[in-house]
Design a protein that fits this description.
Elements: H1 7-10, H2 32-38, H3 41-57, E1 70-72, E2 85-86, H4 87-102, H5 108-124, E3 135-136, E4 152-153, H6 154-171, H7 176-190, E5 207-208, H8 227-235, H9 243-250, E6 261-262, E7 265-266, H10 304-321, E8 338-339, E9 346-347, H11 359-363, H12 370-383, E10 388-389, E11 392-393, E12 397-398, E13 403-404, E14 407-409, H13 410-413, H14 415-424, H15 427-434, H16 436-445
Helix pairs in contact: 3-4, 3-12, 3-14, 4-6, 4-14, 5-7, 6-7, 6-15, 8-9, 8-16
Length: 455
Amino acid sequence: MRVLTIALFTGSLLIGCGGNPSKKEKIDTQQEPEIGKELTDEQLLDSVQKQTFDYFWEGAEPESGLARERIHLDNVYPAHDKDIITTGGSGFGLMAILVGVEHGFISREQALERYEKSVSFLEKADRFHGVWPHWLMPDGKMTPFSKMDNGGDLVETAFLVQGLLTVKEYFESGNEREKELANRIQKLWEEVEWDWYTKGENVLYWHWSPEYKWEMNFPVGGYNEALIMYVLAAASPTHSVKKEVYEQGWAKNGEIKNDTTFYGLRTVVNHYEHDRSPVGPMFWAHYSYLGLNPKDLKDQYADYWKLNENHAMIQYRHAVENPHEYKGYGKNLWGFTSSYSMKGYAGHRPDRDLGVISPTAALASMPYTPEQSKDFLRYMYTEQDSLIGKYGPYDAFSLEHKWYVPRYLAIDQGPIPVMIENYRSGLFWQLFMTNSDVQKGLRKLGFTSPSLPNE
């Protein structure tokens, strides 16, 4: 296990709500100010990976071993949210646990035990044509995300399956117990009825409910965070969809290629079909690419590395140019995604900038913008350490509005350790892209990648 030098001074951070984020009281004023300055990049990366891993390890919902939707260190929760399990965030968490194994935070045996517990829970939990709901309770029952969203959620299920298949690849060549886990995951994967969620049309629908049927009426078209859903739907060995579903539903018969230029960079694809926003929140470049390797990944519509690299650099340039003159913005402080804000949960992006920074945006972009992301990481841990708690940087903050809360969201913490590991070792890209079903699905949709062996 790597020595976590920074843990000495991040483990006892003060927890506050409101007020101007500033350096915390120092226990040892002779030593601690120097520790942060002496930390290497590797130590900083170790530290943030360990803390964000802990969200999914020690912070997990105990009955399932899966991810809590949110953890509020101030213990203020709306309704029964403290107990809610997030299916999509759990997919990220399943991957984050492997970071713990690879870096010696936990043993392979400990991880296996946790995965067995979680898979047992998922096998018995509510599903709707093989698709899990957005939220589950500790007894495995669905709890509504909204009134009509009380059935299957195909996008969240895709994020969960991405994590499950990565775990499968990690263990399937192991001992008999590990192979059995891999077989159980394969069965869950094969039970997802992706084709049901087309309604017989050439598009995938986000939701279906036994009570409301297709009333939510949300066909998923690109570009957004859901590319992985279309890849998995094409890859399914039991319930796959045709290439036309991808071409007509996701790519809008090629209209997805109608890109624009923002901050001097091409957006590569059309980020918004129905409004004029040039780029989306940063999580669009993270969620689908935790396992799906964008390096030299191309199809008839995009170069996915250039797409994500430009997305991150557009956000960086926005912070550096700082058109609204928000306090703190610059080369060390950037990144906008959907997160908490002074006005509740909000979809932050350059053209809808409330003055709120969401740390996951820059940190999970480490593969695309390594130097800019490491500058942000060092600044946070050495200059804004009151904004860091036991599970890493808090979800969001604003120097401009003197606002922050000591709260976390699984879907924001999860991409941090996973994408940093992809930057450091490529682990999750290697694992997921090795899956033979995934390879068949990518070929079926016309993707090319160095990760796809010649047939």
